[in-house]
């Protein structure tokens, strides 16, 4: 089974041959892979080198914690990848972007007004949480729209705050 | 003498204080908010009482309620920890008025050090150097500022009186630049804070933030416990502290001069119990008083590791009216200690706080590693309080050994559920400038990058990719087995037995 696994902007071609053999970028590696008790902890022996990692799923990616570092990994087989390539590209730039609260908090300030043009990186809202003021920024150029909150409001996690159209 | 102490705090510091009390055979009373019913400090204490709803003002900041609980529970002393009520002179006074011992300084010392202008005036009249400047001289006109500039000396900073966050701040190198920069600083301050007042302060170049821990008992003895290097900060939040400071290193003369000045500053306000004098130190080893923290500090463990003094136990001893167990001659720094603050913050996303449940956590142990924490598997990181998950403190015979040990400890640290700044600390441990002690207070914000050090042993995306793929592959196969019921070649009972084994 062939997979394309993406970490950051780096792609890795991983082919699983059988229980104990994997090709990475065409290089054969001997693998021993074992789940530890009922935790998402895996012990991995690669050509005799020992690694221990936590692996757990989130929305679309797998989170891999290895030597203290977290790697979000997107694992796709060839079919999934073709589907995504076909569907992907068109929607992204034109669709409405919903800014959602990444955590619960209190709205401190909204430096934009309805209909204001914004650039990528502009601050859309200042949210206070855990005694820190956090600036949430626009991921792309567009117009600020559909402001659903005002300063002083409390928001819950994932609540939609405003849109960039 | 008291036999029961109420800890008016939460999280790791409440646990730290409970541990000291337990070792001293003193009973403990915890207080908690509705969000903290299951917190470690509640479970570790001998008694626990509810304060109110989660927001601090409805719980941990309710001084009257805390005093009421102290009376009800029979506690005769209150330890405030850090934050919350720790530096509130009115609360310290209320405790005393109610016949309770406040494990900390006198209310008058808290008040004197709490007001920046008063603190500067008090310590400078005791002969303690302060950063030259015009702060506290009221609102000055442009002509006054121009006249005072040569006295302050160049380079200097124009700072907004209402300021913060660098808004309305200008660096001035010469007299010629002054008029123009005063105007632009005022404009920016006016826009940002609605107040165009500015003051001048000498620019301390390549400044380091170094602080001295002091202890003072009721018998009149005041000692210093060496320094802590706290220059590694981001937006004025300390991230890593060490003791000794690599900048002072073996300069015993500078260390004892700073220590003696710190003692003098503490004595100028009749200081009692544990406190910290913060200094700015420039590249020529001139040092200036910045402020005094009139409480136990987050980073106190690094001092404990190199001096062997248990600061919290000493605080309790002092509050009981006993002499300290140490005089200045007893205090020697042995080896090197480093503390990393592990926060629920995403270093790849502008250090945005991360909330949620810690689903799995395994903290480092082994030789020379100390962990102070208030979390456990299943703990919920809530948005109500600060983002500190734990403090990892290591001790080494030398600084190099401490760094290598910290690197090892951070690799062992496993936490799932919320984002943490562990990768930030790992990058720092891999940084040559950090290793060489070549950093100042601007280092993190101006010269440090979160780009992974690709030469690091801890950076291994290829292995991560293989691991993710194997786990995903296993899951896909498992799902396929469950879906394709008709294709099974064995009996349903056998299949169920296998399936259950897989789920275990």
> Any idea what the CATH architecture of the largest domain in chain B is?
2-Layer Sandwich
| Total DSSP E strands of chain B | 24
Main sheet specs of chain A: 8 strands, antiparallel, barrel
The CATH topology label of the largest domain in chain B is D-amino Acid Aminotransferase, Chain A, domain 1
Assign the CATH topology of the largest domain in chain A.
Glycoprotein, Type 4 Pilin
Low-confidence stretches of chain B: none
How much of the sequence lies in strands of chain B comes to 15-25%
**Number of domain units of chain A:** 2
CATH architecture of the largest domain in chain A: 2-Layer Sandwich
Looking at the structure, what is the overall shape of chain A? elongated
CATH class of the largest domain in chain A: Alpha Beta
Q: Provide the number of structural domains of chain B.
A: 5
Number of helices of chain A: 1
**Could you give me the name of the CATH homologous superfamily of the largest domain in chain B?**
ATP-grasp fold, B domain
Indicate the structural class of chain A.
mainly beta
What portion of the residues of chain A fall into strands of 2 or more residues?
over 45%
Low-confidence segments of chain A, given as residue ranges, are none
């Amino acid at each position: 089974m062939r997979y394309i696994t993406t970490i950051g902007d780096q792609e890795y071609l991983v082919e699983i041959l059988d229980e104990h053999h994997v090709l990475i970028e065409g290089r054969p590696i001997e693998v021993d892979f074992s789940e530890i008790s009922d935790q998402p902890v895996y012990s991995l022996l690669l050509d005799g080198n020992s690694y221990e990692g936590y692996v757990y799923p989130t929305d679309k990616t797998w989170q891999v914690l290895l030597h203290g570092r977290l790697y979000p990994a997107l694992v796709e087989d060839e079919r999934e990848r073709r589907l995504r390539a076909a569907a992907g590209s068109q929607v992204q730039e034109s669709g409405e972007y919903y800014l959602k609260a990444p955590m619960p908090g209190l709205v401190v300030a909204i430096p934009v007004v309805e209909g204001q043009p914004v650039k990528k990186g502009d601050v859309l809202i200042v949210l206070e949480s855990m005694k820190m003021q956090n600036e949430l920024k626009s991921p792309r150029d567009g117009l600020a729209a559909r402001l659903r909150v005002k300063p002083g409001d409390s928001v819950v996690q994932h609540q939609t705050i405003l849109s960039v159209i | 003498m008291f036999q029961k102490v109420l800890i008016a705090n939460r999280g790791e510091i409440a646990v730290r204080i409970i541990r000291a009390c337990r070792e001293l055979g003193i009973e403990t009373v915890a207080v908690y908010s509705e969000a903290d019913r299951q917190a470690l400090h509640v479970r570790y204490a001998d008694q626990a009482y509810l304060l109110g709803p989660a927001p601090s003002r409805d719980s941990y900041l309710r001084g009257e309620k805390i005093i009421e609980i102290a009376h009800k529970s029979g506690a005769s002393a209150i330890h405030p920890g850090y934050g919350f009520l720790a530096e509130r002179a009115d609360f310290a006074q209320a405790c005393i008025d109610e016949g309770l011992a406040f494990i900390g300084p006198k209310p008058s010392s808290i008040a004197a050090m709490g007001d920046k202008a008063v603190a500067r005036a008090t310590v400078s009249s005791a002969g303690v150097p302060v950063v030259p400047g015009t702060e506290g001289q009221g609102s000055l006109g442009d002509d006054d500022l121009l006249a005072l500039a040569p006295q302050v000396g160049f380079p200097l900073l124009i700072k907004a009186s209402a300021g913060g966050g660098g808004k309305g701040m200008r660096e001035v190198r010469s007299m010629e630049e002054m008029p123009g920069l005063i105007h632009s600083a005022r404009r920016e301050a006016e826009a940002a804070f609605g107040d165009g007042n500015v003051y001048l302060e000498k620019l301390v170049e390549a400044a380091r933030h170094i602080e001295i821990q002091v202890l003072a008992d009721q018998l009149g003895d005041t000692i210093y416990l060496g320094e802590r290097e706290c220059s590694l900060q981001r937006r004025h939040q300390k991230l890593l502290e060490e003791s000794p400071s690599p900048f002072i290193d073996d300069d015993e003369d500078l260390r004892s001069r700073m220590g003696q000045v710190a003692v003098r500053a503490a004595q100028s306000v009749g200081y009692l119990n544990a406190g910290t004098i913060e200094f700015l130190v420039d590249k020529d080893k001139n040092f200036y008083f910045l402020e005094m923290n009139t409480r136990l500090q987050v980073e106190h463990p690094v001092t404990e590791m190199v001096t062997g003094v248990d600061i919290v136990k000493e605080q309790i001893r002092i509050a009981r009216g006993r002499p300290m167990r140490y005089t200045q001659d007893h205090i020697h720094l042995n080896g090197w200690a480093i503390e990393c603050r592990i926060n629920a913050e995403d270093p790849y996303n502008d250090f945005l706080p991360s909330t949620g449940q810690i689903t799995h956590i395994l903290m480092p142990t082994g030789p020379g590693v100390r962990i102070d924490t208030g979390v456990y598997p299943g703990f919920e990181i809530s948005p109500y309080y600060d983002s500190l998950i734990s403090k990892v403190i290591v001790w080494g015979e030398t600084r190099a050994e401490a760094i290598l040990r910290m690197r090892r400890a951070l690799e062992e640290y496993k936490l799932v559920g919320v984002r943490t700044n562990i990768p930030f600390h790992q990058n720092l441990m891999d940084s040559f400038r950090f290793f060489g002690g070549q950093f100042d207070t601007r280092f993190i914000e101006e010269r440090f990058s979160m780009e992974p050090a690709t030469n690091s042993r801890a950076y291994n995306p290829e292995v991560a990719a293989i691991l993710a793929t194997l786990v995903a592959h296993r899951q896909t196969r498992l799902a396929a087995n469950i879906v394709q019921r008709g294709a099974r070649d064995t009996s349903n009972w056998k299949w169920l037995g296998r399936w259950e084994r897989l789920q275990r």
